[in-house]
Amino acid sequence: MHFRTLRIRPWFLILLLSFLLLPSFSGAGLREEVFETVLPNGLKVLLLENHKAPLVTFQVWYRVGSRNEEWGKTGLSHVLEHMMFKGTEKVGPEKFTRMIQENGGNFNAFTSYDYTAYYENLSSDRIQVAIDLESDRMQNLVLRGEDFRTERMVVVEERRLRTEDNPQALLIEQIMATAFQIHPYRWPIIGWMEDLSRLTLEDLKDYYRIYYSPVNAFLVVAGDFKKEDLLPRIERAFGSIPRGVAPDQEKRKEPAQIGERRVLVKKEAQLPYLVMGYHVPNIPTSDSYALEVIAAILSRGRSSRLYRNLIQEKRLALGADADHSLLSHDPGLFYIAAEPLPGKEVAQVEKALDQEIERLQNELVKEEELEKAKNQLEAAFIYSQDSLFVQAILLARYEITAGWKAIDDYIPSVRKVTSEDVKRVANQYLIQDNRTTGILVPLALQKRRPLPEGSPIRERTIQ
User: Fold this and answer.
1) pLDDT of 428 strictly over 80
2) Could you report the per-residue pLDDT of 84-137, keeping only the tens digit for each?
3) pLDDT for 352-371, tens place per residue?
4) Residues spanned by CATH 3.30.830.10 within the chain?
5) pLDDT, mean over the chain
């Protein structure tokens, strides 16, 4: 993730706070509130007007992430995200940052398996700044060798800091590499260290040419604007950009797993860590909503099953969690994880987790517990949209995976889940042969040498 620390004017801080806390969700859903159009060059535009505060979030999403990379060239998406801030012929290096600063805004970018996104949050009367900057770098990015070598070094240090020096993150990376044998979800978003060292400037130029075009991107704009004024400005700025060729987004389907896979990661750490990853469907199937409910039953709140049984009663774990990748382009993993208490064995915790899964498979969830889980999911879904910024991100993530209109199906689909669905889905997917189990084996901690002065990781904040 690319981040710059900005000095923001006091008046903008007040407005930004109101922007982030702005209630904007309507029980009627978003289909009636969002305007959608597609420019002649293939660029989709989603506009969500809200005039309760004079602010706007302007977001550009590209349908490219690490799933679009290939063997030997992992990390391209993330490195290109960094390079998108190095300037065009019109906007020199660092000028992008300065222009946003001077207009009292903030910005960021992030890369995932399925997408790369860029945004600016600004006072609504400064929206043209974002329009001009984003349309310029969509077509005119200048990729220089010196900048590339610097940013590649930054990404290498970021990987070292965030993954190789983070035992739990390293374990998850190894689980993904073991659970997926064909699909590109097997490699990390940031890339393998060896691949990063081999990437070339020509690789980056080809990647930019293939994936950074209107036909492979879309805009999401939310906040205080009038569609009749904003849309012509977007058309003028983006409409003349060549359409490009839509890249093939289909990936080989991961074959069914035919037996449990186990991976041990030996790393300097204070405590062991246990993670189980089960292959599950994503949003296009109704079963994915049953998995949402299962995750809530297991780990949402202090009354959840994992908290009550593993943490409070049996005192086996410091923490336990369940997570479902609903909004992924392709089917992903359902995770169950726990960190054993000091003195407790991983085998004890694994047995306790297995018992919780068996309980879901053998007993119908009581109506009261089922209703509580649904209420929690609905409340979290609605609360997440109290910020227009987050609402725009959620719209975009749905657009990437199932089309943005599917956002209105979330609550009704969760509400339809029955106790029988929970039991059936647990028996179908949360089985031993369908999982990859990872265990972090702690090694003795050693004193780390500090990063040298002048290291790129010291000179910028990465998030």
Assistant:
1) yes
2) 999 999 998 889 999 999 999 999 999 999 999 999 999 999 999 999 999 999
3) 999 999 999 999 999 999 99
4) 2-251, 270-443
5) 91
CATH architecture of 2-251: 2-Layer Sandwich (3.30)
DSSP string, 395-433: HHHHHHHT-GGGGGGHHHHHHH--HHHHHHHHHHHSSGG
Which residues, other chains included, contact 379 with Cβ-Cβ below 8 Å and sequence gap of 6+?
A: none
As to burial, measured by CB atoms within 10 angstroms (0-12 exposed, 13-18 middle, 19+ buried), residue 386 is middle
Residue 275: how many CA atoms within 13 Å on its side-chain side? 24
Q: What is the rounded distance in angstroms from the CA atom of residue 393 to the CA atom of residue 387?
A: 10
- CA–CA dist 327, 381 (Å, integer): 13
Answer for the pair 239, 177: CB distance below 8 angstroms, yes or no. Answer: no
Confidence band of 9 (pLDDT split at 50, 70, 90):
very low
CA atoms of 281 and 334, how far apart (whole Å): 9
Inform me whether the pLDDT recorded for 48 exceeds 70: yes
Structure tokens at 1: 């993730």
Distance, in Å, from the CA atom of 282 to the CA atom of 398, rounded to the nearest integer, reads: 12
Q: What is the CATH number of domain 270-443?
A: 3.30.830.10
Estimate the share of the chain in helix, then strand, then coil, as percent rounded to the nearest 5: 45, 20, 35
Query: 438, exposed or middle or buried, with CB in 10 Å at 0-12, 13-18, 19+?
Result: buried
* Token couple for 167: 């035992």
How many Cα atoms sit within 13 Å of 419 on the Cβ side?
12
Residue numbers annotated as active site: 81
User: What amino acid occupies position 112?
Assistant: S
